[in-house]
Design brief:
Blueprint: E1 7-10, E2 18-24, E3 27-32, E4 35-40, H1 52-55, E5 60-64, E6 71-75, E7 84-88, E8 91-95, H2 110-122, E9 128-132, H3 138-145, E10 149-154, H4 157-170, E11 177-181, H5 184-194, E12 200-203, E13 208-210, E14 216-218, H6 219-232, E15 240-245, H7 252-262, E16 269-278, E17 285-295
Parallel strand pairs: 1-16, 4-5, 9-10, 9-12, 10-11, 12-15
Antiparallel strand pairs: 2-3, 3-4, 5-6, 7-8, 13-14, 15-17, 16-17
Length: 297
């Protein structure tokens, strides 16, 4: 019989300032701090659990563009500010309603932030952590807050500026995070040539993207190359590797086996599964991403 991995469901139940209030009809109703928002959600193919009057209380609704590239927010009950403060445990960050429908924070990742903090805190030695495709940096904040020396990389100058502002808001020392505007694969390959190494690596690659010099990122084509390069910069005493994927036609099994190849000669624990949000209305689980993660402990 094939020894198939057991897949996990990863929830983030400890939020105080975020909630998935309801979902259905291709949309989700969410609470982001003081604001109630409606965004598209292709996974929500079922009927909403709350009556329409609850959805009508939304402060703003996101309307995607016909070509599914961008869109706009329509104020419903009040005008939205350019940005507002949010907090998860000790991590503080800015949320903003962007033209890509995202708000600078992926709430379903909170369980991963907790896991990253626990890995860094439980390590017997100081941790150097590399966060690739770091976006607005909340995973970097989690690692730095736990005591790691973090290298945060993203191809977007705007995202790095946002992440730096989150660092300041959380009150972390400037020296706790090194900021890199670069192409992920090229940077990792250079780090390998320099002999640099990291105890922890965080990977959250998009389906498709471009580097700061126009480098093209394609998930299926380049992920094997990136994982192979990351293998070369793992410390002799690594602590963890975490890989998350959004909006790709792959299962958690794909990430499980890909990460298994990367850490094939390492002892430890490897798990994979889905990252979900849990509704307040009917307690349904809304799948947001797939993940695989390995830890030495």
């Amino acid at each position: 019989m094939l020894n198939a991995p057991h897949l996990h469901i990863l929830e983030s139940p400890d939020w105080q300032e975020y909630a998935l209030l309801d979902s259905g009809n291709g949309q989700k109703l969410e609470q982001y701090g003081p604001f109630r928002l409606v965004r598209p959600e292709a996974e929500a193919v079922w009927e909403p659990g709350l009556p329409l009057r609850e959805w009508d209380l939304a402060d703003a609704i996101f309307h995607p563009a016909p070509e599914e590239n961008g869109g706009h927010w329509e104020p419903n009950r009040r005008t939205m500010p350019d940005r507002w403060k949010m907090q998860y445990r000790s991590l503080k960050f800015w949320a903003a309603a962007t033209s890509s429908r995202h708000l600078g924070v992926f709430p379903e990742q909170a369980a991963q932030w907790d896991w990253i903090e626990s890995q860094v805190k439980s390590a017997a030695q100081p941790s150097r952590v590399l966060n690739l495709f770091g976006y607005t940096g909340i995973a970097s904040l989690a690692a730095a807050h736990a005591g790691a020396q973090v290298t945060h990389l993203d191809a977007s100058r705007k995202s790095i500026t946002w992440a730096k502002e989150n660092q300041q808001l959380t009150g972390l020392p400037e020296t706790s995070i090194r900021w890199m505007l670069d192409d992920a694969l090229k940077f990792v390959q250079r780090e390998a040539r320099r002999g640099s190494c990291y105890e922890g690596i965080i990977l959250d690659p998009p389906k498709f993207g471009r580097g700061p010099k126009g480098e093209v990122w394609e998930f299926y084509k380049l992920l094997p190359n990136l994982l192979s390069a990351c293998r070369e910069i793992l410390s002799p005493n690594p602590q963890f590797v975490i890989l998350t994927a959004y909006a790709v036609k792959a299962s958690a099994l794909t990430l499980h086996y890909a990460l298994s190849d990367m850490i094939t000669d390492r002892k430890g624990t490897l798990e994979a599964g889905e990252v979900v949000l849990t509704e307040k209305s009917r307690r349904r689980l809304l799948s947001m991403a797939i993940y695989a993660r390995w830890s030495a402990g």
